[in-house]
Structure formats: structure tokens, C-alpha cells
Amino acid sequence: TTIYTNRALCYLKLELWDRVLRDCMLALEIDKMMTKAHFFMGQALTELEKYDEAITSYTTAIESAKARKEHFGDDLHQALRRTKKKKLHKEEEKRMSEEIELQTLLTKLLIDDLERKKNQEPSDDEVVEIDKHNEDLEAKYTKYLDTLNHLFAELDDRRKKREVPDYLCGKISFEIMKEPVITPSGVTYERSDLEEHLQRVGHFDPLTRVPLKREKLIPNLAMKEVIEHFMENNPWAEYY
Prior knowledge:
By secondary structure, the protein is mainly α. It has helices spanning 2-13, 17-30, 35-47, 51-68, 75-118, 130-160, 191-200, 221-233; strands at residues 180-182, 188-190, 218-219. Helices cover 65% and strands 3% of the residues. The protein has a three-stranded antiparallel sheet with strand order 2-1-3.
């Protein structure tokens, strides 16, 4: 398995993604829970924009590393977060394209409907009023178009603000925190991530390196309230 993963690493550096996948699969045929193979496979799949498969590979790598008590630092969690972010951005780009198509279609329908009504044969008593009738129609449909463009502009503004502030994310997994705790050094972490660090890596603060014990962790209730408020107003962040 080491030969396959070492060669896969070389292919990663050469950006030969298909060959990375091939060697990782060969390694996994021998050891289906080999952490490095799943890790390298996740990187290659991310580059190929197969994000769901990459997320599965990274998740398996994290579970394998925990089971085997292997230490990869924060590399696995960071890679998983980057891939989730790329997936979200790709989905956003697709939504933007669909929204532009929809706006274009609705605009065309309104303009076509305006022209159709303007070209309708007027009755005898309406002939004298034709100019005023067309002016009223122009004003009415101009208002429709303005409203339509305003709605899509608001949607675009909301989409541009779809970013999770860094201070809401844990310093280890970089995921949005669910149970934030603060250390004596003043740094806030996700409880489960920090407790795992203390158990597997050592009894010290990951950032400040100051000695730290589990009983010194204090729930950061203010941050928890901020996170809950953000999630209520940004349900899309659940998949961020």
C-alpha cells in the first residue's frame, strides 16, 4: 500500500488526477481504510470537481485516522472544509446562471406581451385614444420591468453576502461551531474538536501552546447566541 500511496502523492504534485485515483483504489483494495489513500483520493476528486465523492473520501479518512489514532494535524478537516466551500460556490454559480436565464425569459415575456397589446386592433371609439392608450401601456409595463429588475437585484445582493464569518468557525475543524468553549488564553474552539486535540495530541492550547486541561474550558454562551442568530437568518449556512 505504501508504494501505491507514495506514487499517488507524486501524481498529485504532477496534477495527474486520474492516476492518483487509480493508485488510491489499488491501495484500498489491500487496505480499505487506509487514511492516506482516502485523503489523496479526496484531493484528486476535488480537482475533478466531483465534490460529493471527495467529501465522502475525506470523511472516511477522518474516521480512519481517529480509529487508528493517526495524527494528521488539521490537514484532513481543512481539506474537507475547502471542498465543501468549493461545492457551495459551484452550486451558487449554477443558481446565478439559472436566475439570469429566468430574468431574461420574464423580461422577454413582458416585452412581448406589451407589443401584443399595443398591436391589438382598437375599436372605433378607441381610435382617438390610441396614443394615450399606448402611453399608459408603456408606463404600466415599464413599472413591471423595474419591479422585476429590483427583485433580482435584491436577490443578487443577498447572494453576495453568503459568507460565513471566520469568527463563527472553530479554529481546528474550521466548521461552524455548535458548542463553542473558551480557553484561559481567550481563544474560542468547538468543544468536541478541542477535547479530541487534548486527548490525542496533548494537553495544550493548539494556538497559544499554553498548557491546558479539559476542566479549564468554559462555555462561550455569548458566541453560541451569535451563532444561533446567524443560523436562523442564514439557513443555507447549514450546508456551508
